[in-house]
UniProtKB/TrEMBL annotation, chain A:
Protein name: Cell cycle control protein
Annotated signal sequence range: none
Location of this chain's protein in the cell: Apical cell membrane; Cytoplasmic vesicle, Secretory vesicle membrane; Golgi apparatus; Membrane
Biased composition (Gly residues): 15-31
TM ranges: 53-79, 336-358
One BP term from GO: phospholipid translocation
Protein topology in the membrane: Multi-pass membrane protein
The organism of origin for this protein: Pavo cristatus (Indian peafowl)
InterPro entries: CDC50/LEM3_fam
From TrEMBL, chain B:
The UniProt record lists the keyword Lipid biosynthesis: no
Protein name: Phospholipid-transporting ATPase
Main location: membrane
Species assigned in the record: Pavo cristatus
InterPro entries (alphabetical): ATPase_P-typ_cyto_dom_N, ATPase_P-typ_P_site, ATPase_P-typ_TM_dom_sf, ATPase_P-typ_transduc_dom_A_sf, ATPase_P-type_domA, HAD-like_sf, HAD_sf, P-type_ATPase_IV
Length: 373, 899
């Protein structure tokens, strides 16, 4: 890189230190306060500096290097992303042919709940651990009023907040003069469809074990969300004096049978409470662990998805999806980053070539450098 | 030992003598300062935002805008408090200075602030007056004292003042103590030299004696000027926020929409952050230090460097289009040197090259014994020994005492002459004033002859002498004027006793007149100074300041139009302009002077306007210079003649703007300001700069956008009223070409970068609104919103805007062309803004697409976006920076650590 070093510093900066100028300044500082400005590099704006000058010699290699680095990175990322298996079914049941169409207009608290089964076929086997997501569309979990409609201290197990939730929770703060636990619009609208996955082989349905623990963040599970404290571990007693959110069929202490996954620390609940940034989002629902190294987690073949259809989305024109996906070191499927790298790298490389040609053909014509301005 | 007094007999409430130039006291600082600050529209805007956040349910917490606002207010308050503390200190210095007051026939030392009305103050030689004084008695028996008004109007020459006649005798402490008197006087006036009052003395129950007093009214004027300077501070009402949005806000009637709107306003107000305001202020404030630190603008002679009074104008130094400069003391040294004289048409030269300077003049005197020469010298001596430090008011006149003093003492013959002069008895002095432009003395010789000697500008002397004497002298005077010398003519007249008696009576009458004293005096003077005999003329040179020609050339090359506004006569000013290369030999001069004023109004349009204004090509082929004098200018500018004068004004302006150089001579101080105002208010309102050294330039210094004072010989008035003060005219070059250019570019980059980074910051937030149902959900965390501008991104740009030198300073100073080129590439231009904003839009969109797709949770995205914003805006500046230096690097690293 061509560097234009300011040689002025040497020219008249240093000699002043030993010269008469320096002597005068020193004398002035001692006895009589002179108003003469100090002859320092900083005050005289003569700090050493360098100024990169763009020449063909520096720009061309830069372009090529960027191109040569970016293109392989991009290809690597793109391939990785493409290797991720992903399967997605929309089970909203908008189309009349869909098995779930019958459940489209049922209310959330109908008993018995509407159930439907969707059969699907996986073309490729899923080799590594599979993540099962539910996805919602046109669901504004990022609406301002929605986002703040929660009481974090209540969720953190604070007993006073449990009985007296924050005003932010309005209008889901109290129900029939009893405080709602967990309060707020987010909790109230918790996703409550149940999804079950079966492998269909020769008309026999084998349930695939879905792990419901380990889907929430560790910090959320252990720090941010805590059950209220009190005598004993009986959640029913601890939640005494509160009422369930209006739209919930069961109170919060009956979300799960296992005590370390019940109440506020229920992982489905925690996942839901972490609001999505965009109106179309997916949330982790279950994990499917790879059993052995010999068999893929999900073989290619026929599967069926049993849905307990509780969550109404038709009223706001929403969609519900079930997604099966594997992940890689760079997360889920996202081809954008790879494409971006490849594009930038290609452009740089292309520009490098073009500039090289230009430089080769016309480079010697104008040797005098312009004033860098 | 002039002794003065101000006495109040009637018990009336007078304020004490304390000077208060400070704005605040310890007690009222907080409320008053807050009030002052919130009167500024920008602060008020942020206060409103803050209140909206407190009252309405908005997306971000009040802290996000409250904290920066608090920060700004505190920093400004500290800055203003510090400045006020300095003012307090300066006040104290004056207020606590010791003065001697005579109380009970004794001298008592007092602090200046404790002087009461009615105290008798004793002021020794070379002391400053602590307050307005009435001159009662002095150490000299004739009751005169010599006062310089350098601290008031910058004139360093001495003005004589006379004591009240009845108190002159009271020279001792005891005597003065016995005085009982009442003084009636008028309110302070803007005119320094006018004072009308009456002293009534009570002497042991006798009839009160009424006397008129002529004295200076000193301090009140100072205070008013200073007050004016503060009031005219342009900094206070600078609108800078978008007014439209507020109006729009008011038009909404539906409450829902109203609050939504408020919320969005709160959400997007970060595009114009409070901290930009602070950073700009800081940049200006710190940047001004580099100007005062500049070693090259330090002058060894006066041991001072540049002084920055206002730091708000650094960037305007880089945009100056018109430079108005004074001549004397600014372009020239203002130190006079005797060149030659001409007596009765014969030329006598005195220059350093000749071995025995003035003796050449003496020669003829001895050898030929010509009475004329003797008379001439006698006139000069008299005018000058008797009236030692009588002086020139306007640039146009000489009679500078110092230079004559030197040659008198250098020549033994002259000393003899001076001694001879003592034999003359001074009867009357007809004081100098700028309207008459001459002064006279009436003396009685030992032989009893009465003589009147008069000296003054040629234009005022020539009409009053016998015409046949003029011819030869006039040739010399004109030639001297062409050479750029200041000329002075001397004339005399013999008076008979009868004439003298009449004059004496008239003068005394006029002096005692209560009303129209000035007019009456002027009339008597006018009558007296007539039918004189011309003796000769002198020529004195005022040398050009070093490098002023080069500086003017550089300014011209930098595309600035230089106007010289001077009080000098045309020929002198013209030759100075040629000497300092304001006019080139190729410049075609257009003269609009009193000489042509008769045909002017008729021929003005035809001769100049028509061919010049309409013909577009004229500027290309030829450089034009315009010369205009004060009287013509007042004809044009003051529409007293008829309705068409305003028409002339616009034509005049058009011509002026097309000329590369304009010389305005014979200008009164107010006319100077008038010209500046005229140019300032033209279309496109060009940035004007005034530079001057004397009190007569103060008005134009205050009027122009940028006022520059020269710390010259004519006192400190100009320097004090200016925005920047430099020791010499040549320093203007570096100030404008290097500092001005740099600060213009720096501030342009600073503001542009601020918009860039905040668009980068806020645009994703804006786009996000489309994805969150327009619910004003902020994309960033409140803390991040607050700290982004204050901590994360403010230091690099500050360092950049202080240290950036896109072009080397030496290159800038030596190549004035760069000053124009900067304006062509216009950093603030629309194209540039478009280019940059498209760049940052691309950046935001990229980030948006990249935004982790469906599965990302809200907080994740926030964090990622925050990090992206900081990391993507910082390198942008890094790439733009052309000069890296170590301290800048430091500033770059600090936010990265924080982030």
């Amino acid at each position: 890189m061509a560097v234009n070093y300011s040689a002025k510093e040497e020219a008249d900066g240093h000699p002043a230190g030993g010269g008469p100028g320096g002597g005068a300044a020193a004398g002035g500082g001692g006895a009589v306060k002179t108003r003469k400005p100090d002859n320092t590099a900083f005050k005289q704006q003569r700090l050493p500096a360098w100024q990169p000058i763009l020449t063909a010699g520096t720009v061309l290699p830069a372009f090529f290097i960027i191109g040569l680095i970016f293109i392989p990175i991009g290809i690597g990322i793109f391939v990785t992303s493409n290797n991720i298996r992903e399967y997605e079914i929309d089970y909203t049941g908008i189309e009349p042919s869909s098995p779930c169409n019958k459940c489209l207009n049922v209310s959330w608290d109908s008993t018995p709940p509407c159930t439907c089964t969707i059969n699907f076929t996986l073309e490729h086997s899923f080799e590594s651990n599979v993540f099962m997501y539910y996805g919602l569309s046109n669901f504004y979990q990022n609406h301002r009023r929605y986002v703040k409609s929660r009481d974090d201290s209540q969720l953190n197990g604070d007993n006073s907040s449990l009985l007296n939730p924050s005003k932010e929770c309005e209008p889901y703060r109290t129900n029939e003069d009893k405080p709602i636990a967990p309060c707020g619009a987010i909790a109230n609208s918790m996703f409550n469809d149940t999804l079950e996955l079966y492998h269909v082989e020769n008309d026999t349905r084998t349930a695939i074990p879905l792990i419901k623990k380990g889907i929430a963040w560790w910090t959320d599970k252990n720090v941010k969300f805590r059950n209220p404290t009190g005598d004993g571990n009986n959640l029913t007693a601890l939640f005494q004096g509160t009422t369930k959110p209006v739209n919930w069929p069961k109170p919060v202490y009956m979300l799960d049978s296992e005590p370390d996954n019940n109440g506020f620390i229920n992982e489905d609940f925690i996942v839901w409470m972490r609001t999505a940034a965009l109106p179309t989002f997916r949330k982790l629902y279950r994990l499917i662990e790879r059993k052995s190294n010999l068999q893929p987690t999900l073989q290619a073949g026929k599967y069926s998805l049993d849905i307990t259809y509780n969550y109404p989305v038709h009223s706001f024109d929403g969609r519900k999806r079930m997604i099966l996906s594997t992940i890689s070191w760079m997360g889920g499927k996202n081809p954008f980053l790879g494409i971006a790298y490849i594009t930038v790298g290609s452009i740089c490389f292309f520009l490098g070539v073009v500039l090289l040609i230009i430089h080769h053909k016309y480079g010697n014509r104008n040797t005098s450098a312009d004033i860098p301005n | 030992r002039p002794v003065s007094e101000a006495d109040a007999y009637v018990a009336q409430k007078f304020c004490d003598n304390r000077i208060v130039s400070s704005k605040y006291t310890v007690w009222n600082f907080l409320p008053k300062n807050l009030f002052e600050q919130f009167r500024r529209i920008a602060n008020f805007y942020f206060l409103i935002i803050f209140l909206v956040q407190v009252i309405v349910d908005t997306p971000t917490s009040p802290v996000t805008s409250g904290l920066p606002l608090f920060f700004v207010i505190t920093v400004t308050a500290i800055k203003q408090g510090y400045e006020d503390w300095l003012r307090h200190r300066a006040d104290n210095e004056v207020n606590k200075s010791n003065v001697f007051v005579i109380e009970n026939a004794k001298q008592v030392q007092k602090e200046s602030e404790k002087i009461k009305v009615g105290d008798i103050v004793e002021v020794k030689a070379d002391e400053t007056f602590p307050c307005d004084l009435i001159f009662l008695a002095s150490s000299s028996t004739d009751g005169t004292c010599y006062v310089t008004t350098a601290s008031l109007d910058g004139e360093s020459n001495f003005k004589t003042h006379y004591a009240v006649r009845d108190t002159t005798v009271l020279c001792t402490d005891e005597a003065i103590d016995s005085l009982t008197a009442t003084i009636e006087c008028e309110q302070p006036q803007p005119d320094l030299y006018k004072f009308v009052g009456r002293i009534i003395m009570y002497r042991s129950n006798q009839e009160p004696v009424a006397r008129l007093v002529l004295q200076l009214s000193l301090k009140a004027t100072v205070c008013t000027t200073l007050k004016y300077v503060w009031q005219s501070n342009p900094f206070n009402d600078e609108p800078w926020y978008n007014e439209k949005t507020k109006k729009e806000r008011e038009t909404f009637k539906v409450l829902r929409m109203f609050t939504d709107f408020l919320s969005f306003m709160v959400l997007f107000n970060f595009i114009i952050p409070v901290s930009m305001y602070v950073t700009v202020e800081m940049q200006k404030f710190l940047g001004s230090f580099f100007i005062s630190w500049d070693k090259e603008m330090y002058d060894e002679e006066i041991k001072e460097g540049a002084l920055v009074n206002t730091s708000d104008l650094n960037e305007e130094l880089g945009q100056v289009e018109f430079v108005f400069t004074d001549k004397t003391g600014t372009l020239t040294e203002n130190s006079m040197e005797f060149i030659e004289c001409c007596i009765d048409g014969h030329k006598y030269k005195d220059c350093i090259s000749e071995v025995d300077g003035f003796s050449q003049t003496d020669g003829p005197l001895k050898y030929y014994g010509k009475s004329r020469e003797e008379l001439f010298l006698r006139a000069l001596c008299l005018c000058h020994t008797v009236r030692i430090k009588q002086a020139d008011q306007v640039d146009g006149l000489i009679g500078h005492p110092e230079c004559k003093n030197t040659y008198i003492s250098s020549s033994p013959d002259e000393i003899a002459l001076v001694k001879g002069a003592e034999k003359y008895q001074l009867l009357h002095t007809l004081n100098f004033d700028p309207v008459r432009r001459r002064m006279s003395v009436i003396v009685r010789t030992t032989t009893g002859k009465l003589l009147l000697f008069c000296k003054g500008a040629d234009s005022s002397i020539f009409p009053r002498v016998q015409q046949e004497e003029i011819q030869q002298t006039k040739v010399h005077v004109d030639r001297n004027a062409m050479d750029g010398y200041r000329t002075l003519c001397v004339a005399f007249k013999e008076l008979t006793q009868k004439e003298y008696d009449r004059i004496d009576r008239q003068l005394n009458e006029a002096k005692m007149a209560l009303q129209d004293r000035e007019e009456k005096m002027a009339k008597v003077f006018e009558d007296t100074e007539a039918d004189m005999h011309l003796i000769g003329a002198t020529a004195v040179e005022d040398r050009l300041q070093e490098q002023s020609a080069e500086t003017i050339e550089a300014l011209h090359a930098a595309g600035m139009k230089v106007w010289v506004l001077t009080g000098d006569k045309m020929e002198t000013a013209k030759s100075t302009c040629y000497a300092c290369r304001l006019f080139q030999t190729s410049t075609e001069l257009l003269e609009l002077t009193a000489r042509v004023v008769g045909e002017m109004l008729a021929g003005f349009e035809l001769n100049y306007a028509a061919p010049l204004v309409k013909d577009e090509s004229w500027t290309l082929s030829q450089e034009y210079g315009l010369i205009i004098d004060g009287s013509t200018l007042s004809l044009i500018l003051n529409p007293s003649q008829d309705s068409s004068s305003s028409h002339y004004k616009s034509i005049f302006l058009q011509i002026c703007l097309k000329c590369t150089a304009v010389l305005c001579c014979r200008m009164a101080p107010l006319q100077k300001a008038q010209i500046v105002r005229m140019v300032k208010n033209t279309k496109g309102s060009p940035i004007t700069l005034s530079i001057g050294d004397g009190a007569n330039d103060v008005s134009m210094i205050l009027e122009a956008h940028v006022g520059i004072g020269i710390k010259g010989k004519e006192g400190r008035q100009a320097a004090r009223n200016s925005d920047y003060a430099v020791p010499k005219f040549k320093h203007l070059r570096k100030l404008l070409l290097a500092h001005g250019h740099l600060y213009y570019v720096r501030i342009a980059h600073l503001v542009q970068y601020f918009f860039y980074k905040n668009l980068c910051f806020i645009l994703p937030q804006f786009l996000y609104q489309f994805f969150c149902g327009f619910s004003q959900q902020p994309l960033y965390d409140a803390a991040y919103l607050t700290m982004y501008n204050i901590c994360f991104t403010s230091l690099p740009i500050l360092a950049y805007s202080l240290l950036e030198q896109h072009i080397n300073i030496d290159t800038l100073t030596s190549d004035p062309q760069l000053y124009i080129r900067k304006e062509i590439c216009s950093f603030t231009g629309r194209r540039m803004l478009l280019k940059c904003s498209s760049g940052r839009q691309f950046l935001s969109w990229c980030r948006w697409i990249n935004a982790p797709k469906a599965k990302s949770s809200f907080r994740n995205m926030r964090a990622e976006n925050s990090a992206l914003t900081v990391t993507s805006t910082l390198p942008q500046k890094a790439l733009c920076k052309r000069r890296w230096s170590s301290s800048a690097l430091l500033a770059y690293f600090s936010p990265s650590l924080v982030a």
